[in-house]
Amino acid sequence: MEDCLFCKIIKGEIPSTKVYEDESVYAFKDINPLAPVHILVVPKEHIGSAAEITAENSAVVSKIFEAAAKIAKDQGIAGDGFRIVTNCGENGCQSVHHLHFHILGGRKLGVEMG
Ligand code: AMP
Ligand code: ZN
């Protein structure tokens, strides 16, 4: 996807602070952190959102969650707990249309989900 911000970050065309990478997953610090630890985990393959996950592309989602568990340990937030969120579409307030999972932690988070 030529015009996709996160595809450009994955290709190194836009700088990011990488925290994890493997053959199918890339993770980097959110530019506007909402918690002491705020990391985005994305598939290297362009998938527009959670609404575009199918039987053909869903294997990467388990890879993302494996990576998230490693990242949480590396960042020192696995023990105290953290949150994984993906915003989808307009009502979900998704602003970048490349599937991404926010890892938020490092403080007690609010209880509201909506
Ligand atoms: P969402 O609103 O769920 O689509 O999340 C998009 C996230 O991408 C927001 O938390 C932004 O702060 C973050 N973001 C936007 N541009 C960049 C960037 N260049 N580097 C890192 N994070 C970014
Ligand atoms: Zn993309």
Overall description:
This protein is an alpha+beta fold. Helix content is 20%, strand content 22%. It contains two helices and five strands, in the order αβββαββ. The protein has helices at residues 5-11, 59-74; strands spanning 18-21, 25-29, 37-43, 82-85, 101-105. A five-stranded antiparallel beta sheet has the order 1-2-3-5-4, covered by helices on one side. Strand 1 (18-21) and strand 2 form a beta hairpin. The chain is globular, with a radius of gyration of 14 Å. The termini are far apart. Adenosine monophosphate (AMP) binds next to loops. Zinc ion binds at residues 1, 4, 6-7, 46, 98.
In short:
This protein is α+β, with helices and mostly antiparallel strands and 114 residues long. The chain has helices at residues 5-11, 59-74, and strands at 18-21, 25-29, 37-43, 82-85, 101-105.
Mean pLDDT: 97
Which ligands occur here? adenosine monophosphate, zinc ion
Encode the helix/strand succession as letters: HEEEHEE
Helix amount, in percent? 10-25%
Spans where pLDDT lies below 50 across 5 or more residues: none
Strand arrangement in the largest pleated sheet: 1-2-3-5-4
Give the radius of gyration: 14 Å
User: From the structure provided, what is the oligomeric state, counting identical versus distinct chains?
Assistant: single chain
Strand segment tally: 5
Give the strand content.
15-25%
**Alpha-carbon distance between the two ends:** 30 Å
Number of helices: 2
